[in-house]
Write a structure and sequence with these properties.
2 copies of one chain form a homodimer. Helices cover about 45% and strands about 20% of the residues of chain A. Chain A has 12 helices and 11 strands. In chain A, strands 3, 4, 5, 6, 9, 10 and 11 form a 7-stranded mixed beta sheet that branches. The two termini of chain A are about 35 Å apart. At the A-B interface, helix 5, strand 4, strand 8 and helix 10 of A face helix 5, strand 4, strand 8 and helix 10 of B. Chains A, B: This is LysR family transcriptional regulator ArgP.
């Protein structure tokens, strides 16, 4: 079998972002951590972690860390059934952490109650990795996370997938913004020049909406605001028009602080839940909570699909 | 002089995240973009952009992009004074974008009004880069941004620095969380096991507070939530205790949805504004708005320092 103390040292260095902190967590000296990892690298025949600040795992290192997470998850299940196995000195059943990739807009609009109920039911911990909904599945493919909320409908090998529903976006701006930049109404001419918000380089939602609803390519001056709440706040402040999650915009629309650019023309982004097939109870509980909250909070298609 | 059409192509590829999109913005074909960059690389004698998805600038490429941003900023000033210089076809004074690094908690708690007033006064655009307050200065040092909100008090060469004041954090948890995890009161024993939140691997605020206020090293089970609003929401949901910006927590503290772990023991993080010495009016306006809002929203020291 693999050298698990060395693997635990590697995972701790990556997770804690340093050899010293990893050593503190493991209760050994930093040089012991360093020796274990060097021995593992010699055995595997490749560098596993680049010694920079913070240390960065190589591709091989990432795979081994992902393996450690999976083994630890399965161990957690064993310990729950056989409490006598719990590590002495740290109490029974040292808490298990599941690393999960979520898109920022899901975290901002519906994922947090999932996290709260999961933690309450299981006592386990979540390590959220934020990425664009088009890119969370890559994190699953690389083994970095155990599960992902993703817009990618292509099943990741070794994973189960289910359609969660759609995160509904509305194209919004402040009333003052529209008076200033679209006094004649929202049309192609107005949107060619009106400032727009984008989350980051990969955020194509505004362009997609402009194409689908007004049939125009979008090439307007842009404020870049890489935060879900900041995006909404920037819309409210009149910095630009933007697609915001409907659940977050609704109260502001009702109060007249935001206006829909073209009423009744939302944009739906279908979201899927993909998770490793591990047969681990914790992942099943998380999947159940994700599916339950999604049914409540996401737009549901007329017919449901599962795979 | 350098080949500016080629530099503009390089900057567009990096900014837009692709050769096709850069070509659309520049109004040329993707192969023209590619040829210009290749010619520039031959002249400079090194690779400037790694052809992956999205394309990534090399260190040399990053420096050249930063140079383009600076030249463009100075050009914007010229155009404002001499409107006849504005590029034909795109209207006068094509909008200038300033790239600025901000820590997530500043964006969540006080930076947005700065952005709104700056945009209103100047018509210019901001491209926000989020990073930890300990790391925003590196972005300035590498030339990636023109200015940064940073906790780093070491002046970056070629930049001006001013102390903005302190972002005040309070250690908070939900009342239910404290009943469950600290029924005997918040002490070293309770915090050794009570779940804690961390923003990311580099977030040492909770550990710093525990060390300063209770004199203990923190090694408790952790939920990782890399979002300022998500962090506050997770605190409200009772997932863990955490340091939240006081401005964001205040209403929840007043309403009893959050409780201070040790009343009257906040943690202050001094923030500085560092910006390139360019003598550009837009940067001066932004600096003025940053300083004005900081005076209003950040805790001010008894004596002010400037450099």
């Amino acid at each position: 079998m693999l050298d698990y103390p060395a693997l635990a040292a590697l995972a701790a260095v990556v997770r804690e972002g340093g050899f010293e902190r990893a050593a503190a967590v493991l209760g050994v000296t930093p040089s012991a951590v360093s020796q274990r990892i060097r021995a593992l690298e010699e055995r595997v025949g490749t560098t596993l972690v680049v010694r920079c600040q913070p240390p960065k795992p190589t591709e091989a290192g990432t795979r081994l860390c992902a393996h450690v997470e999976r083994v630890r998850l399965l161990e957690g299940e064993l310990v729950a059934g056989l409490p006598v196995l719990g590590e002495p000195g740290r109490g029974n059943a040292a808490p298990v952490t599941l690393r999960v990739a979520v898109n920022a807009d899901s975290l901002g609009s519906w994922f947090l109650p999932v996290m709260a109920r999961f933690a309450e039911r299981t006592g386990a911990f979540l390590d959220l990795v934020l990425d664009g909904e088009e890119h969370t599945a890559e994190r699953l493919r690389s083994g970095e996370v155990l599960a992902a909320v993703t817009a990618d409908p292509v099943p990741v090998p070794g994973c189960r997938m289910r359609l969660l529903g759609a995160l509904r976006y509305v194209a919004t701006a402040s009333p003052g913004f529209l008076r200033r930049h679209a006094p004649q109404g929202v049309d192609a001419a107005a949107l060619a020049r009106a400032p727009v918000l984008r989350f980051d380089r990969r955020d194509g939602l505004q362009a997609r909406w402009a194409q689908e609803v007004l049939g125009i390519p979008l090439d307007a001056p842009t404020h870049w605001v890489p935060s879900t709440q900041g995006f909404l706040d920037a819309s409210l402040a009149g910095l630009g028009w933007a697609l915001n999650p409907k659940r977050m915009a609704d109260a502001h629309l009702a109060a007249g602080r935001l206006v829909e650019l073209v009423p009744g023309r939302p944009l739906d982004v279908a979201l899927h839940w993909q998770h490793a097939r591990l047969g681990a109870r914790l992942l099943d509980v998380l999947t159940h909570e994700v599916a339950t909250e999604a049914k409540r909070s996401l737009s549901q298609p007329a017919e449901k699909q599962e795979s």
